Amino acid sequence: MHWIVKYSPIFFDFDGLLADTEPLHHKAYQILLNNHGFSLSWDLSYYTSLAHKSAVALRDAISEQFSQLLREHSWEELYEEKQKIYTTLVKKGGVKLMAGAAEVLKVVSAANIPHAVVTNSILQHVSIVRKQLPQLQKIKHWITREAYCNPKPAPDCYFKAMEVVGKSDNMLGFEDSLRGVQALSRASITPVLISSLLPSQLDLDGVCDLSVYPSFTAIF
Fold first, then answer.
1. What is the 3-state secondary structure (H, E, C) of the chain?
2. So what's the pLDDT on residue 53?
3. pLDDT per residue over 146-187, tens digit each?
């Protein structure tokens, strides 16, 4: 028996945790800036460390480095443009499951554990990726950005998920970002962080009772 089957229900983040979509988000920002005459030199690792740190860290870093662009356009306008670029990229296909994700989902499904995907992503983007990955089509419950008020690190999404699949004193959640595990902790769900980032990039001070693995495959 695998240790995760002791928990119920179990919750999963989506981008970068189940589906390898972070490179496409990174590329979307690169294209966005190129469209406005700028160049984003950040590699994927640095981009991910910002995107996973907090809801505003990426925005603040772009605003600081490309201040001229932010004087001409609001962040809301730029983010909407980025989302449209990402939609085009993800529709082209080629998204893969993260390493070990299929095995974890198989264990949870075989044990008949109630589970759900809980994400800051919008339903449109989630639906496009699900069509490309049959393993994700088997998951019944999906909590997308439209279903709750405040994004992670607020716990709203997990409170909504508990309304859908139930709750207990022994819940488990998998995330790949600091703001994700903060949301889990604030919802009284045992957090597990799946991240290959270095400890110095994660900034996990103040996050208690947290298990960290470099990938899903490492938990087996």
1. CCHHHHCCCEEECCECCCECCHHHHHHHHHHHHHHCCCCCCCCHHHHHHHHCCCCCHHHHHHHHHCHHHHHHCCHHHHHHHHHHHHHHHHHCCCCCECCCHHHHHHHHHHCCCCEEEECCCCHHHHHHHHHHCHHHHCCCEEECHHHCCCCCCCCHHHHHHHHHHCCCCCCEEEECCHHHHHHHHHCCCEEEEECCCCHHHHCCCCCCCCEEECCHHHHC
2. 77
3. 999 999 999 999 999 999 999 999 999 999 988 899 999 999
